[in-house]
Design brief:
Helix content is 53%, strand content 21%. It is an alpha/beta fold. Helix 3 crosses helix 4. The two termini are 19 Å apart.
């Protein structure tokens, strides 16, 4: 089950569509969704989490907490909508596609993909692009 939470004035336009897409992303990697929570928040909210739980004093677009068991995806994904907006401008993409990229990025981490090395980063980017395309396929 996918749960969406909002810490400020932002909401997804169609939660059902996003839920179905996230389920399809998990299935495309031979995983099943368990309890998955997305929290959309501000830079300040996510900075506090970054400082408190990860001892990082930097802004970030996403923080993922992994509670997975076997092939079942369980986790909490916090996304800074402020960072997504800025990243969309910096990367010259739409806000919607950048949001999809970040949402899939968090789920891909829970599935087991990393992004520490250059090879991992390249694989992650390819997977993100693949998953964004899945969202845009007519349902």
């Amino acid at each position: 089950m996918v749960d969406f939470n909002y810490q400020f004035n932002f909401e997804l336009s169609d939660e059902v569509r996003y839920s179905k897409w996230l389920e399809a992303v998990a299935l495309s990697e031979n995983k099943s969704l368990g309890d998955l929570s997305y929290v959309f928040c501000s830079d300040g909210f996510l900075l506090e989490i970054n400082q408190k739980y990860l001892s990082h004093d930097t802004l970030t677009d996403i923080i993922t907490f992994d509670y997975c068991e076997d092939d079942f995806i369980h986790g909490e994904i916090y996304i800074s909508v402020d960072r997504v907006k800025d990243n969309a401008k910096d990367f010259v993409v739409s806000f919607d596609d950048e949001l999809l990229r970040v949402m899939s990025h968090g789920l891909l981490h829970l599935i087991g993909f990393g992004d520490k090395t250059d090879i991992e980063k390249s694989t992650m980017r390819l997977k993100e692009d693949e998953k964004i395309k899945m969202f845009h396929v007519k349902q």
